[in-house]
Amino acid sequence: MRAIIAGVSTPTPLEQIQIGPITTQDSEPLFRWFNDPQAARLDYAWRPVDGISHQKWITSIGTDPTQIWFAIRRTGHAGIIGFVILRNISAVHRSAELGVRIGEEGDRGRGAGKEATRQVLQFCWQAQFIDGEWKNVILMGALRPRVAARGS
Ligand SMILES: CC(C)(COP(=O)(O)OP(=O)(O)OC[C@H]1O[C@@H](n2cnc3c(N)ncnc32)[C@H](O)[C@@H]1OP(=O)(O)O)[C@@H](O)C(=O)NCCC(=O)NCCS
After folding, report:
1. Ligand 1 atom with the shortest distance to the CA of 103
2. Per-residue burial over 104-140, b = 16 or more CB atoms within 10 Å of its CB, e = otherwise
3. Percentage of residues in the chain with pLDDT exceeding 70?
4. Ligand 1, from 16, 43, 108, 119: best to mutate by most atoms within 8 Å of Cβ?
5. Domain 14-151 has what CATH class?
6. Which atom, in ligand 1's list, is nearest to the CA of 100?
7. What is the pLDDT of residue 10?
8. What pLDDT score does 151 carry?
């Protein structure tokens, strides 16, 4: 979908999008996108993904502590339009790599990649999901009274 503004064709922005977990229903579009060499070659050295490996991957997606996958969806819609991955998460260095893909050409350039990246970065800075929202955790400590002070 495109809009014409002052003679220039610009893509219509997507309605609101949100990030969330990958589900088994996302398997087919993800398999298709992983096997889209045109899009993948802009990200990494592409190689085809076979169906058996893909099934194994999607059933074990939450088990690798060094990676987190997020589905990108239009708010209120079940279908996946893209994904964000945090990979090489290092608890020691508190670092990670972020990758983002919008699956279909027609959904690109309409703000979804930028908004999904913003939401995942929010996730990265927050510590606990409580009562439906991400909360910062404030670490507090109490100092043990000094031995000399206690001893007198
Ligand atoms: C790259 C991609 C994730 C961007 O998501 P998107 O929803 O299309 O992009 P948005 O509309 O949110 O635009 C976000 C910004 O990225 C820029 N942008 C979009 N596609 C771009 C591209 N291929 N190259 C450089 N910049 C791009 C936009 O101009 C915009 O910049 P601005 O904030 O300064 O205006 C998406 O187009 C995609 O998956 N493309 C196919 C794979 C690909 O190109 N991968 C490269 C990743 S390094």
Report:
1. 39
2. eeebbebbbbebbbebbeeeeeeeeeeeeeeeeeeee
3. 86
4. 108
5. alpha beta
6. 3
7. 60
8. 58
Q: Please list the residues that pair with 20 across neighbouring strands.
A: 71
User: Which residues does ligand 1 sit against, CB inside 6 Å?
Assistant: 39, 42-43, 100-102, 108-114
| pLDDT tens sequence across 26-41 | 999 999 999 998 888 7
What the block records as the tokens of 87 is 């990979």
What's the confidence (pLDDT) of residue 99?
94
Contact 103, 4 (CB under 8 A): no
- Give the tokens for residue 40: 């993948």
Rg (CA), the chain: 21
Report pLDDT digits (tens) over 74-126.
Answer: 999 999 999 999 999 987 887 899 999 999 999 999 999 999 999 999 888 78
What is the SS3 string spanning the chain?
CEEEECCEEEECCCCCEEEECCCHHHHHHHHHHHCCHHHHCCCCCCCCCCHHHHHHHHHCCCCCCCCEEEEEEECCCCCEEEEEEEEEEECCCCEEEEEEEECCHHHCCCCHHHHHHHHHHHHHHCCEEECCEEECCCCCCCCCCCHHHHHC
